[in-house]
Amino acid sequence: xxxxxxxxxxxxxxxxxxxxxxxxxxxxxxxxxxxxxxxxxxxxxxxxxxxxxxxxxxxxxxxxxxxxxxxxxxxxxxxxxxxxxxxxxxxxxxxxxxxxxxxxxxxxxxxxxxxxxxxxxxxxxxxxxxxxxxxxxxxxxxxxxxxxxxxxxxxxxxxxxxxxxxxxxxxxxxxxxxxxxxxxxxxxxxxxxxxxxxxxxxxxxxxxxxxxxxxxxxxxxxxxxxxxxxxxxxxxxxxxxxxxxxxxxxxxxxxxxxxxxxxxxxxxxxxxxxxxx
Length: 277
Prior knowledge:
Elements: H1 2-6, H2 13-26, H3 36-63, H4 66-70, H5 75-99, H6 106-127, H7 139-165, H8 173-200, H9 213-228, H10 238-264
Helix pairs in contact: 3-5, 3-8, 3-9, 5-6, 5-7, 6-7, 7-8, 8-9, 8-10, 9-10
């Protein structure tokens, strides 16, 4: 890379612009640059970071929702929502950073990067509790747009992570962290789906909840109650209840498959391998 910078001036301006664009989009995907062992370490680090943040998001959603459900305009509620918004923005960045290890598609990465920046930026500008830089009259449509853009991205990342976790013939740290990451990601993504459904049809969880973080926290509570096999205390409408059944079946099936897969893999030997092509 240093050699490229030192000799970039020798390239014609037209070719230089084209070369910079190629290098920019190629840098999106780390699979083009890292050896196999380096890529495994990078994936393990990314999976671990996401798991830590997922635990923080779920903990916030389950334990700190009472003040917000009571009064979302209080000082304590605004602080909680601000912290959660920061976690949410960081979570989307880490998802994209992880996806760079899982695909070489420059077009897919560029599209997802654009959608993430647009949706997260719009959500923060319009929903930040202390000030609103942009005011949108139809808040319901705004929330549907933001979550409608984020949910498909979560599904895409889950599909790539599932393929990565179930591939390979040896047990490496990235597989263990990846298995935990996918499980928590499924719970959060189903929470996003329930949020979309309850935004489009208010009261879908069996009671009317204020849109925004109060509603999302209840959806997260409902989603992880299903995955954890505990009673949520909610009486959702039939569609959400049926989707919850599918989530529970998927969670149980995933648990059985991942345990069988990981237990059947031999431990990886410590050896350096060539770059991935």
